[in-house]
Design a protein that fits this description.
The model has no long low-confidence stretch (mean pLDDT about 95). The protein contains 19 helices and 14 strands. Helix 8 links the parallel strand 7 and strand 8. Helices cover about 45% and strands about 15% of the residues.
């Protein structure tokens, strides 16, 4: 098939590249000239394992091109995927200006040939109808069906997720569009759910809100475990073996971050409130997550007391999770800001996310060239992001580098008994 993908962020670039790998002809469109030129050279503006190789190989095979010319891309394509950002507005709603701007341009570019326009962006319920209305206002002769095919990609494993989806959700009332979109996605999975557009849009929000709920739930339980001396890892394992619950997303820690869960939870809360409904459970989920990063500070105060001025903390991990350089709503930023406010010095290290962090924190903290350098002379090691290289650190090396053998483990990757037997003061979350 011939596809135009508008937007070259995580969703657009990964989706377009993977569809090209499946044998389709794909034009990825972006407004930013420098970004398009970078992509043409095979340079990837985001960190995503496996993506660069696919971009380069599909460009070489002529299946994947990059352009700033939206009109030409629309004319050359049968299916147009809108994959631009929908960032959170100040009131928690999704900022739809980018999606609607694309809809206007698509409307202006359409000819008399039939096209399918797909919302891949995470959008409020009713957006597909609004996009179709905008397109037809711009072009009364447009032969177009606007559909919803939400993405369920995880940063850090987006390529793998694209090729191995749990399901594909297609929202449409058009049989012709349904046939085209089913054919496009059939090579990926047989598990294709076709539903009405509004339900499709809600499935995305409901899925993310439910996963956020599981995370906040186990963190709430972890905090209670801390109060009573129980081990949340044992609790989560015992819970997860119940097939009604399952083990995924029951890892207690510092809460969720990134570009999806915080934004989408806020958005579904705003949708509910706009309809006159108070979503008390989802508000509580958000509240628990907002507070959870402060658990690290409570543990630090529990070890050192409230007078922390002059002490130095080593923070390992800055990205909101491993295998990405994304620091949006990352717990590390909240933790570092709180440590600085209490007068502590901070030296930090992350394998990938250092440059993004420097843009936010600047020279307020020190940045290590590696783990060993970052540990040197610190009074406490705080693990924030569970990169593999942090999980496998040698305890003796940690002890030799630190001023004091103190570890606060925000992701529960170390065994408390082993760490304490090795001579550490060790604090996990709910352990």
């Amino acid at each position: 098939m011939k596809l135009a993908v508008v937007g070259t962020g995580y969703v657009g670039l990964v989706s377009g590249t993977c569809f090209a790998e499946l044998g389709n002809t794909v034009i990825c469109v972006d407004k930013i000239d420098e970004k398009v030129e970078m992509l043409k050279r095979g340079e990837i503006p985001i960190y995503e394992p496996g993506l660069k190789e696919l971009v380069v190989s599909n460009q070489e095979k002529g299946r994947l091109t990059f352009s700033t010319d939206l009109s030409a891309a629309v004319a050359a394509s049968d299916i147009i995927l809108i994959a631009v950002g929908t960032p959170a507005a100040e009131d928690g709603s999704a900022n739809m200006s980018y999606v609607y701007a694309v809809a206007e341009e698509v409307g202006e570019a359409l000819d008399s040939n039939y096209k399918v326009v797909v919302n891949k962006s995470t959008v409020p319920v009713g957006t597909a109808e609004k996009v179709e209305e905008i397109i037809k206002e711009k072009n009364g002769k447009a032969q177009v069906d606007v559909c919803s095919v939400p993405e369920f990609l995880r940063e850090g494993s987006a390529v793998k997720d694209t090729f191995n989806p749990d399901r594909i959700v297609i929202g449409t009332s058009s049989k012709k569009a349904e046939e085209m979109l089913v054919a496009l996605h059939k090579p990926l999975t047989e598990e294709i759910v076709v539903t009405d557009v509004r339900s499709s849009e809600m499935i995305k929000y409901a899925s993310n809100a439910f996963l956020a709920t599981k995370i906040s739930f186990i963190n709430e339980i972890a905090n209670i475990c801390d109060a009573y001396g129980a081990d949340v890892k044992a609790v989560a394992r015992g819970m997860g073996l119940d097939n009604r619950i399952g083990p995924k997303f029951l890892n207690a820690g510092l809460g969720y971050g990134g570009s999806c869960f915080p934004k989408d939870t806020k958005a579904i809360i705003h949708l509910a409130q706009s309809a006159g409904y108070t979503p008390e459970l989802l508000q509580a989920v958000e509240g628990v997550n907002e507070r959870q990063s402060s658990r690290i500070i409570e543990h630090v105060k529990g070890i050192f007391g409230t007078e922390l001025s002059g002490l130095k903390a080593c923070v390992l991990g800055l990205a909101f999770k491993p295998e990405t350089d994304d620091i949006r709503d990352a717990p590390a930023l909240k933790i570092i800001n709180q440590l600085l406010e209490m007068g502590m010095a901070v030296q930090a290290y992350d394998p990938i996310a250092m440059e993004n962090t420097k843009k936010v924190l600047g020279d307020r903290i020190e940045y290590g060239a590696n783990v060993e350098e970052t540990l040197e002379g610190a009074d406490v090691m705080i693990l924030v992001t569970e990169w593999d290289e942090f999980v496998t650190l040698d305890p003796e090396m940690i002890k030799n580098k630190l001023n004091r053998a103190i570890v606060v483990d925000g992701r529960n990757v170390y065994e408390p008994k082993a760490m304490r037997e090795a001579g550490f003061i060790y604090h996990g979350i709910g352990r």
